Amino acid sequence: MSSTVHVFGAAGFAGAQLAALVDAHPHFSLGQITARADAGRSLRDVAPEYPVDQELVRPDVGATSAGDFAAVCYPHAEAAQLVGELVDRGVRVVDVSADHRLPDLEVYERHYGVEHPRPELVAEAVYGMPEINRDRIRSARIVANPGCFPVASILALLPLKDRLLDAIVDAKTGVSGAGKTPTATVHFSQVVENLSPYKALAHRHAPEMAQALGVHVAFVPHLLPIDRGLEATCYARISGPVPSAQELHAIYEDRYADHPFVTVRESPPDMRGVQRTNEAQVAALPDPEGGRIVGFGVIDNIGKGAAGQAVQNLNLMADRPETEGLR
Amino acid sequence: MSSTVHVFGAAGFAGAQLAALVDAHPHFSLGQITARADAGRSLRDVAPEYPVDQELVRPDVGATSAGDFAAVCYPHAEAAQLVGELVDRGVRVVDVSADHRLPDLEVYERHYGVEHPRPELVAEAVYGMPEINRDRIRSARIVANPGCFPVASILALLPLKDRLLDAIVDAKTGVSGAGKTPTATVHFSQVVENLSPYKALAHRHAPEMAQALGVHVAFVPHLLPIDRGLEATCYARISGPVPSAQELHAIYEDRYADHPFVTVRESPPDMRGVQRTNEAQVAALPDPEGGRIVGFGVIDNIGKGAAGQAVQNLNLMADRPETEGLR
Amino acid sequence: MSSTVHVFGAAGFAGAQLAALVDAHPHFSLGQITARADAGRSLRDVAPEYPVDQELVRPDVGATSAGDFAAVCYPHAEAAQLVGELVDRGVRVVDVSADHRLPDLEVYERHYGVEHPRPELVAEAVYGMPEINRDRIRSARIVANPGCFPVASILALLPLKDRLLDAIVDAKTGVSGAGKTPTATVHFSQVVENLSPYKALAHRHAPEMAQALGVHVAFVPHLLPIDRGLEATCYARISGPVPSAQELHAIYEDRYADHPFVTVRESPPDMRGVQRTNEAQVAALPDPEGGRIVGFGVIDNIGKGAAGQAVQNLNLMADRPETEGLR
Amino acid sequence: MSSTVHVFGAAGFAGAQLAALVDAHPHFSLGQITARADAGRSLRDVAPEYPVDQELVRPDVGATSAGDFAAVCYPHAEAAQLVGELVDRGVRVVDVSADHRLPDLEVYERHYGVEHPRPELVAEAVYGMPEINRDRIRSARIVANPGCFPVASILALLPLKDRLLDAIVDAKTGVSGAGKTPTATVHFSQVVENLSPYKALAHRHAPEMAQALGVHVAFVPHLLPIDRGLEATCYARISGPVPSAQELHAIYEDRYADHPFVTVRESPPDMRGVQRTNEAQVAALPDPEGGRIVGFGVIDNIGKGAAGQAVQNLNLMADRPETEGLR
């Protein structure tokens, strides 16, 4: 018997792919897929790369049932409100927004500028990286789907987490990460033949990385003239001697042996093997003179960085094979 | 003694380059450069590729003097109003908008959906292609700077104008041609790795081409994933025998011998030789079996297609060398 | 019971995708996948976007069996030789090269500059557009997979084939169409921010179009700064009155009603709905004043233009559902 | 009276622009511009963006005279040989190759894998960053034009050189930096919609940075899907308290007050203001919690990173204004 997954906010880049993944999933069936401005149009019409003819509708929490699943792809603050209502009805939720990622509410409120309406749900939510919390995700009522930058950078450093002294994350993302709203920032003429550092040392994903890695993170994102793909080059000083390249590779291989979506590469990966997938590729190199290692992580920012990751979490929550519908 | 050139609407792509060209021009000096939302910012701040520190100001027609020149880079309809006011003060104007290009007001009003406020000025205006109207431009009060698509396609077919039976213009333009306003159409994620035909057989530049070439023109523009550059591949049946490739080349060479900004190439040009310049490159090939020739034209849509073309016209109006400040 | 498909020339763009499609196909199983320089590497290593770990091997015709299928992605002339050997062993072949597309050997030899080694096989081969020859493909020993440009342009005009007086095909293709060999033409710095007409009125795909459409075709291809995707804007004068837009749409809908991979659109399509698929989208607009229609076709040049098309043909040859493994 | 500048290796990206800059320079006149494969073609034909009709010739050292200047854009090792011959004839040389950048010959030979033919000339050569060695450049016989990555990263950290404890340079470059030779690495289909870290912790520009900054440098370059432009984000721990943002800005302003081609920005710059120029833009932000600063530098890799930089050096050597011919 299939499980119903509702996708709230399905007209954006992440929501549209999430709806398409659910639609093609062997086990899940698509419940309502919602939009505001685009209600009444088909998903395919709004996002032609996804061959889904189902119609976008205005959100209707009342049409969900206990036992259903939902993915919420709303802006932060708006998401928290909806997640609460869904959970109250017995719906289990993957929150693709940032609203349940930071259990330290003081940090959340400082970075997002709003008060959280349901602190008890933040406390309960599980951070949705299966490579860290696989078992807790299985039984969670609320899974906080991680940010795209944190996914790539945490995976790039996680195997040495216990030895990190600090971390620098220099990340580069495709434009789809900025969302679908037309702004001067995403005008083709602004982006093409350009690279833009932005929100340097001030991006909201930094506390999420720091929380997962346990150290201060200096984070500088850069906007790339590509649509999809995200790379993080991560520089971290570590305690103890710096492993050799072979030792590093073995440590990474060992850490991810049981995680189907993380592949450890011998050398720093480009984006070709991960685009339009839920795969991550990582590598690490030693810098013994600097007392540090350099970790590399690449993902599709909409895939493993959002929609694919959400389906991976839904698979765990629904007790399905972790890779189902994702390969 | 220098001449003053005011640039109205200098924050857009064409206006900004026009202001920069005037600023660097040996003879002209920059009068007011105007903007609305961006008033108070420097041009360099608004358009970092142009090293001009002058401040954008709100437009002030009263600050212009008889004998000054002005270039008007406003949306159509708004331009006509301003051009009239300027001419009334004795300012000679290059109208970069479409408002003075179509002397047949019925055609203008059908395509632009507005009534023209100053029909007598449309009648007086000279169509600003120096390759057609060089002498009339010299003495004009109003020069109607041509559209970017017409420049490339008219130049591609002009040498055979008297023999044309019809014309098809299949044109491809960079995104800057769509202007600076952020819309879904110019979102990087929409444009990259894509090509979009748009306004097929319904674009406002078609009547402008037809007027200059004297035949019906089937015009289909396509949006390219590039910032700057415009190419027109033009298919035209002609009366009489189809010249050989060598004959065609000679006809084109002869037609443009006296026109410094048009280079005739042996084979169809790409965009590299014209980007960020006021140059045009053209070529023509015979299709004897089809009774037609194929003409090719490339320009920079903001250069020879707008701002550079305007300066070329200003040079003529001010009795300066035609290439001054453009090489 | 599955059928074996060998892919000869699997390291190139088309061959690699073809191997990946066969690998993931419910019915087919992958036989040898061959390469010369890359023999010994896995397909995934050579083409990271395809998750296929099978190793590329040097071609071995002796390892094929009667009843097997093969797809040949060799350069022309080399392909003809191999196809002959395979057919002699009872292998049924889709020739992705140009070697069996032109039954008029005089035309073939003039355009490809070689003599065909097996004229009787050219005579026997079926041109592999299911929208024209579906039934003949089912029983063919050799299917000549069409060129990428012909697929898009023939589909754009096919519904009016009987009324065509002539045809102009102005096509734009992604760089993958130029193949994997590094040359000055495909250097990133040459392609980006550029558009290049090439082989204007002299491209080898023109006779293939003319053969399918029954009229002279003036064909000008242009190289786009994108990887994958191909668009053809086709201008054709027709006999009799030019249908209205609605009538044209109905004619196209009717022609393709039974063809699952061709979608008729109301307005000219961009590439988003077809990239990385075997889908084609077409549209047509009337130009009554010019006595012509304008047909539009978009495909993925490696998908419906090569590898996907080949699998569609293999499905027919193996008596499988036409869409199997392609959606 | 003008000075003659010969450009050896003028068909590559840097050499072609250098020749064009010299050609348009008010004081310099272009001597021989050399090429091997492209000898006999005009520069414009080889590099259409530069309107220089002079013909490329095979190199002829005998055609140079004492008092001439030369710029050598050869591959390393080949350059050293030629530079020696030129200096022996009394020609003053800017070596755009790496052959005279590393006075520590052991370091040079380890990184470049060749023995230097003229050690005494390496010892004599001046490292060609005017922001460090302006006065020594004026009188040098050999100026070692710096690498593109070092220019951007050294400028990004130079104002705090005396307080640096270490440095990490995460740099991103356009494809033109990889040179004009077609390889798999620069195939459009490989580069577009991608980002590739390469030679991580193993790039030859690292010792050049370390030499200029006086600390160990961990350097990871990344290949961007753009043609021209280079950005370096540089993370450095410093001794003493970390300055505030305002203090940092003042330190940078002060350091570069006298250097016309370096602009200090309030926030991290993108590439728009430097492309196709000899300008550099830098910025710095404090990370007090990490005890470090983050410096940003952007340049045009062919401009301030090669050809423009060389002309700036030639201006100094010829006792001309530093900005002549560069604005």
How would you characterize the overall build of this protein?
Chain A is built from eleven helices and 13 strands. The first copy, chain A, is 31% helix and 21% strand. The model of chain A has no long low-confidence stretch (mean pLDDT 97). Chain A folds into two domains: 3-124, Rossmann fold; 149-301, Dihydrodipicolinate Reductase, domain 2, CATH 3.30.360. Chain A has helices at 13-23, 43-46, 78-88, 105-112, 119-124, 130-139, 148-157, 188-191, 205-213, 245-256, 303-317, and strands at 3-8, 28-33, 69-72, 92-95, 126-127, 142-144, 167-173, 196-197, 217-223, 230-237, 262-264, 280-287, 292-299. Chain A starts with a strand and ends in a 10-residue tail after the last helix. Chain A is globular, with a radius of gyration of 19 Å. The B-C interface holds B 166, 168, 170, 172, 174, 190, 192-198, 200-201, 216, 218, 220, 222, 224-229, 231, 233, 235, 267-272, 275, 285, 287, 289-290, 292, 294, 296 and C 166, 168, 170, 172, 174, 190, 192-198, 200-201, 216, 218, 220, 222, 224-229, 231, 233, 235, 267-272, 275, 285, 287, 289-290, 292, 294, 296.
Tell me the strand percentage band of chain A. Answer: 15-25%
Gyration radius of chain A, in Å: 19 Å
The CATH superfamily of the largest domain in chain A appears as Dihydrodipicolinate Reductase, domain 2
CATH class of the largest domain in chain A, anyone? Alpha Beta
How would the global form of chain A be characterised?
A: globular
Looking at this protein, list some descriptive labels.
homotetramer, 327 residues, alpha/beta, Rossmann fold, Dihydrodipicolinate Reductase, domain 2, 7-stranded mixed sheet, 6-stranded parallel sheet, 31% helix, globular
